[in-house]
Write a structure and sequence with these properties.
The protein is mostly helical. The protein is built from ten helices and no strands. It has a single domain, classed as Four Helix Bundle (Hemerythrin (Met), subunit A) (Up-down Bundle). The two termini are about 15 Å apart. Keywords: Receptor.
């Protein structure tokens, strides 16, 4: 039973997920389970591989800024907004509609938001010449980015497994 796959189960009581991630939800689920129709629709409207590739480009881009390469598009006030990226736009729109009821979706939202906050802080510190603080914020970006990528890859794996299963097994 995988760590992330256990998180992709909706709460039975319909209540929002707490901010406390020190314990896992009670669930015997072995993976993200969506109905076949839902998996097909979600895969059609969102290219997870593209989102992963797009998110992976952020760290080298931020690293260049940390090394002093100026890019006008990397403004702290823009980067801080977690909906400024393709992934963020999907998470705030169709992603929330399709997957917002899964506890791990909120975790993915929070990790993406934290990534953008750390990136903005890194840029602010770098602009101010506070390189030690900028490097510390960049490490926060790296950590959050790895978590975002793990969650996206787990989502992809679960969706692919859902598509391979007969519909009658998904309804169990």
């Amino acid at each position: 039973m995988g760590f992330f796959s256990r998180l992709f189960q909706p709460r039975a009581d319909g209540q929002p997920v707490t901010d406390d991630w020190t314990s896992l939800p009670d669930s015997q689920a072995s993976e993200l389970v969506l109905m076949d129709e839902e998996a097909v629709r979600l895969m059609a409207e969102f290219d997870i591989d593209s989102a992963i590739a797009s998110h992976e480009r952020w760290l080298p881009w931020l690293s260049q800024a940390l090394q002093g390469v100026h890019d006008e598009r990397l403004r702290p006030e823009v980067v801080r907004d977690d909906s400024c990226s393709e992934l963020g736009q999907w998470l705030h729109g169709n992603g929330r509609i399709a997957l917002g009821h899964f506890p791990a979706f909120d975790m993915l939202m929070r990790r993406n938001r934290y990534f953008h906050q750390q990136a903005a802080m890194m840029l602010l510190h770098a602009e101010a010449g506070e390189m030690q603080l900028a490097e510390q914020a960049f490490k926060g970006c790296q950590h959050a980015s790895r978590q975002v990528l793990l969650l996206l890859k787990e989502l992809k794996r679960g969706l692919a497994a859902s598509r391979r299963r007969p519909a009658t097994l998904n309804r169990a």
